[in-house]
Amino acid sequence: MAADPGARGTARQATHHPHPATSGTPTVLSGATVVLPTGAVQDSRLTIDGTRITPTTPENAQVIDVTGHYVIPGFVDLHNHGGGGASFTSGSAEDILKGIHTHRLHGTTTLVASTVTGDMDFLSQRAGLLSELAEQGEIAGVHFEGPFISPCRKGAHAEDLLRDPHPADVRKLIEAARGQARMVTLATELPGGLDSVRLLADQGVIAAIGHTDATYEQTVEAIDAGATVATHLFNAMPPLGHRFPGPIAALLEDDRITVELINDGTHLHPAALQLAFHHAGASRVAFITDAMDAAGFGDGRYWLGPLEVEVADGVARLVEDGTIAGSTLTLDRAFKRAVTIDGLSVEDAVQALSATPARLLGMSDRIGSLEPGKDADLVLLDADFDLKGVMRRGEWVVGPQLR
């Protein structure tokens, strides 16, 4: 089964209830190129029974002819701050669900909700709200991006709310998330950074190096302490230098690190993306959105935490100084760009958007690939890699749009 990227999209018609093809009746998607862990298989078929992919086809299965299309695994986003006009940091539960649904319309069937820097008590309260949604299965957990980051590389975070990553503070946020904390981004060179990395590793929470001013040597030390992810590699960290290679070289060269990339054409030059893939390979690259409220919604004025953001032509920047403030990316666009512009194979793009992040979350037994027994999370694409359908747990979020 071969898959390719989804399309940039305006909001698509959502089916909030099961599509007739899956309302209790097993479904067969027939004739597509299906992207499997072993590669793309042309003129293939995929059978869904209930919420799962099944190896056999029941006699009463309903067949949908999707010849000329690709079927690929649903996208997994490790780093996402909102969408559809809703913020995961400040919105109500209803707002958050709206943002989650916006990204589902664009193929993201599994999403980790990210917060931005705020007061510790406020972040603890948000962690409690988000953990409820995780317990309900709406999100895959919580990612804290800030406040434990470097003021030298703060990006779109409020400097007056930043603090050193002392283990007691890190533990407070983990405990507030009630077992649903998945990742914490740290500037590990700051006081308490290495001890906090060790704490996170002991607690089974991903320690991510990001918004950092660390040297190469300090980054190596953090990796040895247990850090396993690079938060949006290249962005909000010192550039690669020939005498002072900084964190980028350390993060790319170490097989223990998975690197996040924002493939929107704004955050990275195509050559930087190619450099990352050359050194890390698809098994160590996770495409993310780092999306904020405007994703899937449109240009205008928004708030990212306490900071005002202007979105123009799809690019989000802080009003106060023009700093890039997250993205308006959706993962179908990241996928399509990877294949049609960056020259990645469909298989590598699938791995970076589905299999690698699923593995990092410890969810490979359920999601990230199209295999019998796993959740029926999938994206249907046409020959131009435009999104034509999204299924999550056996139900159509976007019903098949076939000619």
Automatic annotation (TrEMBL):
Residue ranges annotated for the Amidohydrolase-related domain, each copy included: 70-397
Which GO terms label this protein's molecular function in UniProt?
N-acetylglucosamine-6-phosphate deacetylase activity
Its top-level enzyme class, in one word, is hydrolase
Keyword entries, A-Z: Carbohydrate metabolism, Hydrolase, Metal-binding
Record-linked InterPro entries: Amidohydro-rel, GlcNAc_6-P_deAcase, Metal-dep_hydrolase_composite, Metal_Hydrolase
In Pfam terms, one family for this protein is Amidohydro_1
Disordered, as annotated region = 1-29
Annotated signal sequence is none
Q: Indicate whether Transmembrane appears among the record's keywords.
A: no
EC number assigned by the record: 3.5.1.25
Q: Which domain of life is it from?
A: Bacteria
What family does the Swiss-Prot or TrEMBL record give for this protein? Belongs to the metallo-dependent hydrolases superfamily. NagA family.
Task: Identify this protein by name.
Answer: N-acetylglucosamine-6-phosphate deacetylase
Q: Look up and give the organism this protein is from.
A: Streptomyces koelreuteriae
Q: Which gene encodes it?
A: nagA
